[in-house]
Amino acid sequence: MQDRHCIADIQVVPQGPDRATTYALIDRAIAVIERSGLHYEVGAMSSTFEGDPAQVWEVLRQVHQAALSAGAPSQLTTIRLIESTDGPTMGEKTSKFR
Questions:
Q1: Which three-class secondary structure state does DSSP give residue 48?
Q2: Contact in structure between 89 and 9 (CB atoms under 8 Å)
Q3: Domain ranges in the chain?
Q4: Residue 22: which H helix or E strand, with range?
Q5: Over 90: is that where the pLDDT of 77 sits?
Q6: Distance between CA atoms of residues 34 and 32, nearest Å
Q7: What is the pLDDT at residue 1?
Q8: What sign does the dihedral 9-93-31-43 (CA atoms) show?
Q9: Is it the case that residue 2 has pLDDT exceeding 90?
Q10: For the chain, what percent of residues have pLDDT higher than 90?
Q11: Any idea which architecture 5-97 has in CATH?
């Protein structure tokens, strides 16, 4: 079986009582990605990371749970994912624009 590669993009929108609390909850979600050891980029509206499919799915679950576990009463999470054996990495997809 060929090695598989995933690129995931996740946006976490927790409900907080005010803007500062909402951003603090988002920071908790981003911290999960930072601690994962996977290659990632934080964007203005979402975060993108890549790696082995099993690792990526576990990090997605943890990111989704981070703000909820920190007290968010509700949350909208949007996930986009590509998995392939021969697809490009994040760097290969974006290098011509950097």
A1: strand
A2: no
A3: 5-97
A4: helix 19-36
A5: yes
A6: 5
A7: 55
A8: negative
A9: no
A10: 83
A11: 2-Layer Sandwich (3.30)
The DSSP bridge partners found for residue 47 are 10, 42
pLDDT at residue 65 tops 60: yes
Report the alpha-carbon distance of residue 11 to residue 25 in Å, rounded: 12
How many alpha carbons fall within 13 Å on the CB side of residue 77? Answer: 22
Band of pLDDT at residue 43, cut at 50, 70 and 90: very high
Which among 65, 57, 46 has a CA at the least distance from the CA of 83? 57
| 3-class SS shares of the chain: helix, strand, coil, % to 5 | 45, 30, 25
> What burial class does residue 60 get, using C-beta atoms within 10 Å of its C-beta: 0-12 exposed, 13-18 middle, 19+ buried?
buried
Give the pLDDT confidence score for residue 28 in this predicted structure.
97
Calpha distance 83→66 (Å, rounded) = 24
What predicted TM-score, i.e. pTM, was given to this entire model? 0.90
pLDDT, average across residues 23-51: 97
Task: Answer for the pair 71, 82: CB distance below 8 angstroms, yes or no.
Answer: no
